[in-house]
Structure formats: C-alpha cells, structure tokens
C-alpha cells in the first residue's frame, strides 16, 4: 500500500485586512499604501475580494480587501516596509505559518528523514527571508524620500540654473539617462525607483484639498545635493565640450 505524501493544494493568501491587523494599522491606510505603490509600478495591484468585517456592526458587514497570493508575497513585504518597517519580521513569520500549514502532510505519513528534510528546508527559507527583509528595509528607506525632502534638494528648474542649462534641456538629458520618466498620459516627471534608492533624486508629493471636497495629488522631482554634484561632474563637462 502506497503512502500519500501529496502536499495541500489549498492556495496560500494574505489580504490587506490581515496585514492591517498584523501591523496594527488602519485598513484604509493599508489599502491607500497598496494603491500608491501600484501606481508607481513598485508592486502589482493585487486582485480584490469581499470578506467579513468583524469590526462592523452593520447588516452588510462586508469590506473590500486586496489579496496577495504566495507568488506575490514580496509585494506584501514592500507594503509593510512602507507602512511599519518594525513589523516586517512579523509578516515574515505569518507567511511561514501559512506555508507550513499548507505544505505539511499528516505526521503519520512522514518518515524521520522527511522530517529532517522539512526542518532543513524551513531553516533555509527562514534565512533567505531574513536576508530579504534587509533588502526591503533599504527600499523602505528609499520610499521615505517619496514624501520628504532633505536640505539642499532643488527642483529641476533650479537644478538647470545651477548647471547653466535650460530646464527643458536638463529634463531631456535626465530622461535619456534613465533618471526620470513620465507615466502614460501623465504630464509630471517621475523619478526612477533606483535613482531614489541611490539618493540622487527625491519625489515630493503634495496633497491639495479642492473646493468639492476631493484631493489633488501633485508630484515634483527634486535633485538632491548628491545628485547635483554627480550631474555637475557628468553633464556639465559634456556641455562645455560641445560649446568649444
């Protein structure tokens, strides 16, 4: 008689409501963070579902949630790193619990060697996730520059003046250097994620209330002091050579 060692076929998922509970944050804030990161192309916008809202006392106590499957758990790490970096390890632990529950066959079906292999696999996964958390923390630091600016950062117009260039010319050069780009149908320049992480650019976000009660979000690329110094060493010498 053969022993069945087939792993559970149940999908492993985590939704935005569960993430909000893990990081002790408001669910609406978690949803907004997911939507902002998806708009920037940092993560993929996950599918939605309706689940029971235990905090609601209304007859229709359903709430819309974003659902992350196992293939997109990295995106959930980025969301938590943006919201509350100190809770990222807690999210890692929760994913491991879900994976262990889905992957572990009945104990009677496991041999001693299989138990050892399972333990080794779990330890390797834990070490890999710890390393991944460090990478995510570095990205979280870069995300902070999306909404704040440091001393010495200037907009593209003032950066062009410092480099003795026309603003349009500088924007064109930065675009060709893969520093900035425009979204499809958008008018504002947006900084590439890797340039934010390098600390040469920042993305300033301003929320402006409108008379009708809605809010308008305006974005502006800023060049940091570090970025301006780098451009002075790369772009300006080329301009001087072209003029001679």
TrEMBL record:
Pfam annotation, one family:
Phage_pRha
**Recorded GO terms, molecular function?**
DNA binding
Superkingdom of the source? Bacteria
- Which keywords label this protein? DNA-binding
Q: Where is the Antirepressor protein C-terminal domain?
A: 130-236
Q: What protein name does the entry list?
A: DNA-binding protein
Protein species of origin: Chromatium okenii
Q: What is the lineage of its organism?
A: Bacteria, Pseudomonadati, Pseudomonadota, Gammaproteobacteria, Chromatiales
């Amino acid at each position: 008689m053969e022993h069945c060692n087939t792993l559970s076929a149940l999908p492993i998922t985590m939704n935005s409501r569960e993430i909000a509970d893990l990081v002790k944050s408001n669910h609406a804030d978690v949803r907004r963070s997911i939507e902002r990161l998806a708009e920037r192309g940092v993560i993929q916008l996950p599918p939605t579902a309706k689940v029971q809202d235990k905090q609601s006392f209304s007859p229709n106590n359903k709430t819309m949630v974003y659902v992350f499957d196992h293939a997109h758990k990295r995106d959930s790490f980025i969301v938590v790193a943006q919201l509350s970096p100190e809770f990222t390890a807690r999210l890692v632990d929760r994913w491991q619990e879900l994976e262990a529950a889905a992957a572990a066959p009945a104990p009677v079906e496991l041999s001693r060697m299989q138990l050892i292999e399972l333990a080794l696999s779990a330890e390797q996964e834990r070490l890999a996730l710890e390393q991944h958390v460090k990478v995510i923390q570095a990205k979280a630091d870069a995300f902070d520059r999306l909404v704040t600016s440091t001393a010495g950062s200037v907009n593209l117009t003032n950066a062009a003046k410092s480099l003795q260039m026309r603003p349009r010319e500088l924007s064109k050069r930065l675009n060709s250097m893969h520093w900035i780009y425009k979204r499809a149908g958008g008018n504002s320049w947006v900084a590439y994620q890797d340039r934010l992480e390098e600390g040469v650019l920042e993305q300033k976000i301003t929320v402006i209330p409108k008379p009708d009660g809605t809010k308008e979000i305006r974005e502006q690329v800023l060049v940091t002091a570090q970025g301006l110094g780098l451009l002075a060493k790369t772009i300006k010498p080329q301009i001087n050579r072209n003029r001679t």
